[in-house]
Specification:
Blueprint: E1 2-8, H1 14-27, E2 32-38, H2 49-65, E3 72-82, H3 85-97, E4 102-107, H4 115-120, E5 123-126, H5 134-152
Parallel strand pairs: 1-2, 1-4, 3-4, 3-5
């Protein structure tokens, strides 16, 4: 099983990098994890709708360059479906059982994810009605994927 996490922007903070590295290491016994960072666009302080759409489009093209036709595309978006940890575990298990061998999760930048990427997604997940920094979302997503694998393996971790 391959899990690809495509993220807009780079992680600069050591504490985020350390947490990401830890979960990638833990997950390595369950799946091949690949983190793909794509360059984010500079966003002006007072961004017009046209500038916003152009920025999202450019970031969307970079995201698309990391996708393969065989990837099951999942976006992280506030309007996505809310799942419990058990719900995510069930979703991943059902995908694996149905023959999906590669899942690509997309975490957008500060403006979100381009509409064309959202339209092409097979599934969209929301972790909360709140907004989180995209750097922190990587950690949260990796932790929840790890928790899902532990749940599906009936191994202790999930409480």
């Amino acid at each position: 099983m391959k899990i690809k996490i495509i993220c807009v922007g780079k992680i600069k903070e050591k504490f985020y990098k350390d947490a990401i590295d830890e979960y990638v290491k833990r997950l390595s016994r369950y799946a091949n994890i690949e983190i793909c960072e794509v360059q984010d666009e500079k966003t002006p302080d007072k961004c017009s709708d046209i500038e916003r759409d152009l920025i999202l489009s450019r970031e969307g093209e970079r995201i698309r360059s990391k996708l393969k036709d065989s990837d099951y595309l999942v976006t992280l978006a506030i309007e996505g479906k809310k799942l419990s940890s058990e719900g995510l575990a069930d979703k991943l298990n059902n995908l694996f059982v149905s023959g999906v061998s590669s899942i690509a999760f997309v975490i957008g930048g500060s403006l979100g994810i381009d509409a064309s990427i959202k339209r092409d997604a097979s599934f969209s997940i929301s972790f909360s009605d709140m907004t989180f920094p995209h750097q922190l979302m990587r950690v949260i997503l990796l932790e929840q994927i790890y928790r899902a694998f532990k749940i599906n393996a009936h191994e202790p971790y999930h409480k």
